[in-house]
Specification:
Blueprint: E1 2-3, E2 20-25, E3 31-36, E4 39-44, E5 47-54, H1 59-66, E6 69-74, H2 80-88, H3 96-100, E7 104-107, E8 110-113, E9 118-129, H4 139-144, E10 152-163
Antiparallel strand pairs: 1-10, 2-3, 2-6, 4-5, 5-10, 6-9, 7-8, 9-10
Length: 166
């Protein structure tokens, strides 16, 4: 079921205890996904956007880098074990999508999962590495980046939203 972007009102703070999957395809058609819990929604440059962060060493990073668009999918609590598995295993080592039991689908050539409660399709607008010198609260570095493995911040335009048929 298509959801109008203007009608989508995510509770960003309510999502803080929910994981999402970030899923992208390379031009050769291979797909990878990763579990994530950091990010947000807002308005930037007069566009409805999401803010997504990915560490460069994550395998999914190279898929997102090579794609113009990707998906953010959110699931109900019954999928926590599956999302945990996807977060623990690298797609470099095994076909975790196949082993997860999730059903890969495509919307305008963007991969997503049919079982998701909400599938948000996004187009990249901006990317920049988070830099140590930009932190005003240096305690965040010690807590979240002890190895100085800073994320890339993506600002992505929301182009389409699908909700699961009830």
């Amino acid at each position: 079921m298509k959801i109008k972007i203007k009608d989508f009102t995510p509770d960003s703070f309510g999502l803080k205890n929910k994981w999402m999957l970030i899923t992208a395809a390379k031009p050769d058609g291979t797909v990878n996904t990763m579990t994530a819990s950091w990010g947000g929604f807002g308005v930037m440059w007069n566009k409805e956007v999401a803010f997504v962060v990915i560490r460069p060493q994550r395998y999914t990073h190279e898929f997102v880098e090579s794609a113009k668009s990707f998906s953010l999918t959110f699931f109900d609590k019954s999928f926590l074990k599956t999302l945990g598995y996807i977060g623990e295993v690298s797609g470099r080592d095994e076909d975790k999508i196949k082993k997860s039991g999730l059903t890969l689908a495509f919307e305008n050539e963007i991969p997503y999962f049919k079982e998701a409660e909400t599938s948000i399709f996004v187009k990249k607008l901006f990317v920049q590495r988070i830099q140590e010198e930009a932190f005003l609260d240096k305690n965040l570095i010690d807590r979240w980046f002890p190895e100085k493995d800073f994320h890339d911040l993506y600002i992505v335009e929301i182009t389409n939203i699908l909700g699961k048929e009830k």
